[in-house]
């Protein structure tokens, strides 16, 4: 059973920093791309940052220069370092992973972690 477990959300003042982590657990799988999405109240879920298995990254324009996505050497954990946070970054952040099991690719999501930025 593959699971994505997120941690690191919380409440921070504007200008502050947070680091989110997402660990993939389970067995008999490999991980392709991973990413972070967010959903603010009344808004659609949007891509924040994405990283491929070869560590190529891309970011939403709204977070470029402030957020950094990375993976550990085993490539089973993805991080999102968030600096210079703004109130508009407030949202539930979700980890996403494209996981290959028995040569088929599946889309997995974490449970979400709340990030609240106060002004």
Radius of gyration: 14 Å
* Global outline: elongated
Strand content: over 45%
Q: Give the helices and strands as they follow along the chain.
A: EEEEEEEEEEE
Number of strands: 11
Low-confidence stretches: none
Tally of individual helices: 0
* Helix proportion range: under 10%
Distance between the termini: 41 Å
Largest sheet: 7 strands, mixed
Content-based structural category:
mainly beta
Report the mean per-residue pLDDT as an integer. 95
Description of the molecule:
The chain is mainly β and 119 residues long. It has strands at 3-7, 10-13, 18-25, 30-39, 46-51, 57-59, 67-71, 77-82, 91-101, 104-109, 113-118. Strand 7 (67-71) and strand 8 form a beta hairpin. It is elongated, with a radius of gyration of 14 Å. The relative contact order is 0.32.
SSE blueprint and pairings:
Elements: E1 3-7, E2 10-13, E3 18-25, E4 30-39, E5 46-51, E6 57-59, E7 67-71, E8 77-82, E9 91-101, E10 104-109, E11 113-118
Parallel strand pairs: 2-11
Antiparallel strand pairs: 1-3, 3-8, 4-5, 4-9, 5-6, 7-8, 9-10, 9-11
Main attributes of the structure:
11 strands, mainly beta, seven-stranded mixed β-sheet, elongated
């Amino acid at each position: 059973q593959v699971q994505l477990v997120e941690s690191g959300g919380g409440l921070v003042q504007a200008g502050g920093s947070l680091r989110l982590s997402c660990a993939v657990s389970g067995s008999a799988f490999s991980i392709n791309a991973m990413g972070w999405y967010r959903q603010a109240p009344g808004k659609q879920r949007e891509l924040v940052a994405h990283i491929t298995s070869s560590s190529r990254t891309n970011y939403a324009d709204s977070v470029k220069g402030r957020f950094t996505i990375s993976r550990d050497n085993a490539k089973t954990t993805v991080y999102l370092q968030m600096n210079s946070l703004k109130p508009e970054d407030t949202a539930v952040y979700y980890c996403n992973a494209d996981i290959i099991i028995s040569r088929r690719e599946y889309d997995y999501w974490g449970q979400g972690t709340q990030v609240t930025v106060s002004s």
